Amino acid sequence: MDVPLELSAYTRVLRLASTPSWEEFSQIAKIAGAGILLIGLIGFVIFLLMSGVTSVI
Fold first, then answer.
1. Ramachandran region, residue 45 (left: φ > 0; alpha: ψ -120 to 50; beta: rest)
2. Number of domains in the chain
3. pLDDT over 70 (residue 2)
């Protein structure tokens, strides 16, 4: 493990990184929120299906 090499790589990444504009942040937040809601909806549908299947058996 070469510590100076790793530190230089980290500082290079930090120099290239920039704060996103409000539009970029807003778009990323909307997409992430939609993904979370979609996964939650899929989980809820699976829960309803499994509840229906177990009540029939």
1. alpha
2. 1
3. no
